[in-house]
Every structure is written in C-alpha cells, then in structure tokens.
Amino acid sequence: MTDGSFLANAEGLRQAADALLNPRPSEAALTLPSALPETGLGESEALERLAPIVIGQARRLGAPEAFAHMDPPTPWIAWAATLWTAALNQNLLHPDTAPVARDLEVRVVDWLAPLFGMDGGHMVPGSTIANLTALWAAREVAGAEIVITSEAAHLSVGKSAHILGMECVKLPLDARGGLAADALPKDLSKAVLVLTAGTTSAGVIEDLSLAARAAWTHVDAAWAGPLRLSPRYAGRLDGVERADSVAVSAHKWLFQPKESGLILFRDSAAAQQAISFGGAYLAVPNVGVLGSHGAIAVPLLATLLAWGRAGMAARIERCMAAAEDLWEFLSGHPGVEVFEPQDSGVVLWRPRGAESVDPVLQRLAPGLASKTQVAGWDWIRQVAANPNVDVKIVSASIGLALAAGLSDAGQEGT
Ligand SMILES: *Cc1c(COP(=O)(O)O)cnc(C)c1O
Fold this sequence. Notes:
By secondary structure, the protein is of the alpha/beta class. The protein is built from eleven helices and 13 strands. The strands form three sheets. It has a seven-stranded mixed beta sheet with strand order 1-7-6-5-4-2-3, with helices on both faces. It has a four-stranded antiparallel beta sheet with strand order 10-11-13-12. A two-stranded antiparallel sheet has the order 8-9. The chain is globular and about 70 Å long. The chain starts with 9 loop residues before the first helix and ends with a helix.
C-alpha cells in the first residue's frame, strides 16, 4: 500500500497555506512535549499545534516598522518555489537525482556573476561559507598564506582563516570606517586581501580600488553586493570586477529564504577545480565545502524571473530611499548624532551626548532597531532590508523615544 504521507495532500497543503494567510498571534507558551513523542499526532493536528508557535510567535520582518537587521521579508514567489524544492528534494551532489536542478543553479549564477566581473561560481548557504570557500581557493590557487583584512571585517573572515590554519591580520580603519589603505603592507605576494562591501556594523563599502594588489583579492559583498543590480548605486562597488572572488548573501538583499548565498570567481574553472574532490560513488566531482546540496537556486531563479533585474533593483532602491529618508529625519533632529558615510542602507545614530543608547533603544518596538559598536561608541543601528518599511512610523517612534529619553535625563539632572 502507498504511504499517503509522501504524496501531495491538497487538503493538508491548504491547511498549511491558510495558517500562513491568516496568522493567529499567540501568546501561548511552548506547549510541545519535552521528550520525543512515542506516537504521532498526525499531520493535520501537528500543523494545528505548531501554527500558533511557528507563525504566531515569529517576528514579522515585513512589518511597516521592521528596520533592525539584515534579514529581509521574502516574496511569495520564493515561498512557492521553496515548497516545490522541499517536495522534490533534489541533491545537486548527484546529477542522477537532480537532472535539471544543477542546470538551474548554473543558470542563476551565470545571470549574476557578470555584474561583479566574475565568470561563474556556485551557491552556498550564505556568505560565511562563501568566505571560507574563497579563502580556501586563494590558498590552493594563489598560494596565499596570510589573510589581510580590516577591523570591520565580518567575524566569518577570522573564523575561516582559523579553520584553514592561516594567520589573519586586521588592519585599522580610516576616518570613513573602512580599511585604511596606508596601513596595507607593501608585500602582499603571500596574502589574500579581504575587502568588505557593506560592513556588518555600519554598511561601509571599503575602497575596492585596492583590489588586485595581493596574491588574491576577495570582496565580501554579503550585504551590499546586490547594489550592483541598480544602475543608480552599482558604481559604489566599482573595482569589484578586479577581485578574484566575491561573496554575496542572497538571503539578505536578494530577499531569499535562508540559507542562500553565492561564491563567485573571476576564473571559476581554476578556482573550483582546486577545491574539488572525487569519490567512488560520485559521478561528478564534489565542488567546495558542502556535500549534499539542495536546489536553493530555484527560489532565487523564480524571483529573478518574476521581477527581472529592474524589479529586483526597484526593491533594493526602495530600501535605499527608506534609509535616506530616515537619515534625513535623524540628521535634522537636534538631539541626535548620526554616523557618516551612508553607503548601503545602514543607518547608525545615537542620542547626542548620551552615555548609553539603551534607554532610547528600550523604548523602540522590537524589530525597529538594533545596537552595534563602531569607533568605540555604542550606536543604534537600523538596516533597510524591508521594502515595505514605513519611515513615517519609524521616525515617529524614534521621536517619541527620544523625547521620553530626554525628559528622563532632565529629571535626573534636577
Ligand atoms: C552577513 C554577513 C556575512 C555572513 O553571511 P551569512 O550569509 O550570514 O553567512 C559575512 N560578511 C558580511 C559583510 C555580512 O554582512
């Protein structure tokens, strides 16, 4: 007898979609068994129990006030394509089980790589793995022994160097908050230079004209890379085409479900060959860090097919406009100090003269802002990852939080 759990169940899928379409907010505590249940509830009951928790208690990344992190809402076309890929479960490790999924990944990489001057690459679960893959290729292809980057590099750069047994040197920042070019060693013949396009804390795009001076240059464009799709902002990453490799997180500014990212190479044949392994049960060599690898390209391909380059750029530009509007509001506020530059939709500010940003931050709705440290100061950080953010709502809440914070400070003073 066929086990119906493995067949498409229209009623069950409708129940799941309905829970998503009509989310019921829930304050209910986690009411799940603490130990592995011996007998199952059945699919329908499991969905019924989980919906109020999984959906009801989730943060809404597309809410009008969501402006805190590099985590975007995802478009419904990506939900639909993800449902397909979960149902089909293609494994790109085996051409046999993934006859078209492999080609679809090649196609989406071919669409995106030229924007960065790269000729190919592969998809990875995010830029942490992309950075690791890049440094590995740099070691194998260019004989790089040391990683040189800036203080603003993402932690995954140091982590990757550690895994690979490479020394990691972090150079100081210039006044703009990017790698200080005059601190670069003269001899970079044994070095992989990692430049960041969109630093995690402040969104600073480092000087990419520094590319091509080292044995290998890797650009960590996890956050700001997608600006290359926008004619208006693409120039901010000029110089990236001279890098040897580029990391981009598709689950950030390409609005993809996690975990989706790209590692791109200028000479992908040489780079990928150097990080490939064969095996008795493999029909084709296994490229890069991952073993089994799903069809994460399909939601990205579906989104790009639905929107085109222009549609994707329009969403990113809407995020940039939101950041610019917020920046304008903040820089016109007498009680606020704002961080410059404004490179990639990350806005940092602090109540002027305040010792701590916490009292103001605590008055802001969860998901409206986060906190970071730059140049020895705490800053309130806002990231324009949500094309549906409403800056009027955000600035009104900030105005109220500041007024309350200022009056507290006044009381303390008297
Ligand atoms: C987010 C980020 C990373 C890590 O990427 P994941 O996709 O989270 O693994 C690396 N570098 C920068 C600059 C980032 O912003």
